[in-house]
Each structure stands twice: as structure tokens, then as C-alpha cells.
Amino acid sequence: MLSAESSLGSNNMKSTTSDVEAASSDVALLKSLGYTQELERRMSGFSNFAISFSIICILAGGITSLQLGVCAVGGAAAGIVWPVGVIFSLLVALAMAQIASAYPTAGGLYHWSSILGGKGWGWATAWFNLLGLIFVTAAVNVGAYSLFTSIVLPLFGVDPSKLTLVHQVIGVVLITGSQALCNHFGIKVTTLLTDMSGYLIFAVSVLLIVAMFAFAKTHDFSRLFQFTNLSGDPGGGTWPVSGNGAFMLLLAMLWPIYTITGFDASAHTSEETKNAATNVPKGILRSVYLSGIFGWVMVISFVIALPSIADGAKQGGNVFFWLMDQVIPTGLKIPLEIGIVVSNYLCGLACVTSTSRMMYAFARDGGLPAMFRKVSAAHTVPANAIWCSAFLIVMSTVYAKAYTTLTAACVIFLYISYVMPSLVGMFAYGKTWTKMGPFNLGPVVFKTVSAISVIGVLLIIYAGIQPPNDPALMALIGMVVLMVIGWFAGIRNAFAGPPILAQIKTESESAPDFGIETA
User: Confidence band (pLDDT; 50, 70, 90) for 231?
Assistant: First the structure.
């Protein structure tokens, strides 16, 4: 007995020693990048995965954006378009994971772009990423509001069709404000909720899939390979009339690609994650492929369960609720729908976390006012960044009233920011970028997936700015114009970028700047 206790004590001591060594290694790596540890490292590898998995949330984009796929090309949106979109997202994530392993900081993409391509490239990446995070959180919270009003309010006799934009704004304010409040109380609270969200998404997804297959009136799997142009009135007016099949295919691609966004959250919480150089790339990749696989089975179940593809498409944005009413018994439908609403709320909670950390990291380097880098002494979180993020999220829902516009805008801005560090990484690899992290694809694979990612994003931009999403195009143009004006008006002189840039410049004067000053 004494021997067993002694062995147990020895194992506990080894575990404690290992944890201390890992924590010391994290602090040392962060210090080598020019930063001191300010945020609290409480997140495990699972928690780092869970926050990205919660933001991706197949019960959010996979459901609230169902019409984007089905109302474009019919059943093939689930059978063919979805896996193609997920594979593309995974290629983007692979390149990101390698860079994240080398540079695990809260700034994520902004730091990577700055280190690999210069401070101007990093500054531009920061703005694309920050706006993308704001738009995606706004889209998620508008989706959560829509789900709540369509699912919960009718139980109390409220007719959702009588609600106005004012009601939506008030609803989004309450949702976003409560998410900011949870974030304000510390990463421990947020981690607990996002960990729970990961399990909830799995559970509700499995139950939903089983219910769809069990109560489907037919099981015609040939639907999954049938392309049908449902633009215009046949698709509930979701997309304008178009006779171009390839173009409709691109529009349908927005469905899976919008759903598989937010995996950069694993990078943004790097400084709160234990053994970040290993766990962050794992978190990024696991969140993408698990969401993609589970999501694929789920959306297949939707298409199979639809009593009619044509009748479902005519419902437009109401197609999922129509499907639930047609197929799922009331006794099962209500708890499933409540689970979906809660999952969407927690998805928005994780989005607020990611957005605020990006804002904190950018402000820490002088890209935003210093007030947003302040860390609360009581809760060890960037409180000002949290509440500013919440305010901007609400304001963006007023600018882009249509849900499809918010989804298109977030896809465009986020995926631009996702590939910007990969683009410069292709040229820096083996030259100014010689020190890799534990996750390393090798030069050939990294450069190949990066090149495919950049080409794919150009196609996404083309699809995302088409009517009725003109405001997304105006936001993109306005953003680029303001960045160019601001940069050459004096920001390039005032903005120093991450502190490691000074070290890089000292070590090598040949760092690529892509036409923009490096330091």
C-alpha cells in the first residue's frame, strides 16, 4: 500500500513538474517574440480546440445558411459542394497551423503577417481579420436572434412576422451584451461555457441527424448528386436569377465556407493556452475537420429529409424551420430547437472572445488606442477590448441589415486575413523564416496549400460581392481605400508593429516587404 501511494505521489510530482516546465516554455517562447505573459494560461488542448469548434458551430452556419446552398444548386449543395468547401477550408487551416506553431501569440494572423511580410502587411491583415471577426459575430448573433424568435417566441404566442428591425437590434444588443459580460468575468468562465458548447454541439448534431433520417418520408440519396439551378423565385428569392451553372456553384460554396470560419480563435487564444506551440495547430485542424465531417453528415440528413427539394427551396431563409415542421414530431422538435438556439448563443460567446483578443493584441502593438490593451487586474481579461468589440458587433448589424450580406462580408474579410500570412510565408520560407514550430508541413506542401488557398480566396471574393450582397463589396472597397490613405498619411511612420520586427531587422536586412516598409 505504501509502495502504491509512493508511486502515485511520484506520478503526481512528475505531472506537476511537466506542467511547470511546459508553462515556463510557453512564457519563454512568448518572451522571445517580444511579449511578457499578461493573460492567464488556463486553456488545455481540448479547450483551445473547443473555442474554435464552438465558433465554427455547424448548428449555426450549417442551419441558418442552409438556403445559401440549397437555393443555389439544390441537393448537390450537400452531397458535393459541402465536402469541396470543407477541403478548401482545411487547406487554408493547414497553412495557418504551421505558422501558428512557430508564432503562438494572441495577435495570431496579424503577428504572422508582420513577421513574415513586414509591418504594413501585418497592419492590413489585422484590419481584415478584425472586421471579419466583427461581421462573423454579428452574423452569428443575428442568426441566434432569428432562431430564438422563430422557435421560442411562438411558444408564448408571439408572431415573429410582426417583429421589425428595431426588435432585431434590441435582441442583438441583449445577446451580445450578455456574451460580453461572460467574457468580462474571465477566461475561466468563458472556457467552461465553450467546453460545454463543444459537447452540446456533438450531442445535438447527432440527435438531429438521427431524427432527420428516422422521420424522413423518403431516403432518396440520388438527390445529393443532382444540380438544379434554383435562382430567383424557385429559390425563394435568395439569389438573383442566373443561368450560369458555374456561378451558382460558387454561390453555393459560401454555405460550407461560411460555416467553417472562426478557427483562427485557437490562434487568438494562444497566450491563454498551455503548450501553445503544439496545442494551437492541433486545435485549428481538429476544429475544421471534425466540424466538416459532422457537418457533412448533418446537411446530408437535411437534404434527404426534405419532402421536396423544390418546395424546400421556395421557403428561402425559412427552409430549415419548414423542414423541422414537416418532418420532426413536436415532442422532439422543441428540445432539439432549444439545443440549437443555445449552441448558437455559445458560438457568439466564443466569437466575442476571439474578437476581443485580436483587438487586444493589435492595441498592444500600437495599432489601436492603448486603452484597448488594458488587462483587468480582477479578471485578467482585456475588458475594454471586450466591450468595444460588443459595440462594433451591434453597429455592424445596423449597417448590413440582410443576413446574407453579413455572411458574405465575414467570409470575404476573414478568408483574406487567413491567406495573407500564408502568401508572404511562401516567399519567406527558408529565407527570413527558418525556425519552424513542432507542426511542420515542409516547404513543398506548405507552399502548395498556400498557393491553392490564395487562388480559392480570390474566387470567394468574386462570389461574395455579387447581388444581393452589394454592401459587402462597398465595405471591401471602402476598407481598402481607407487603409491605403491612412497608411501613407502617416501611420507607416507612427506604427512600429510587433516588437520582434526590430530584432528581425537587426539580424537580416533582406526581409521581404512586398512593397511595404518592414519596420
Answer: very high
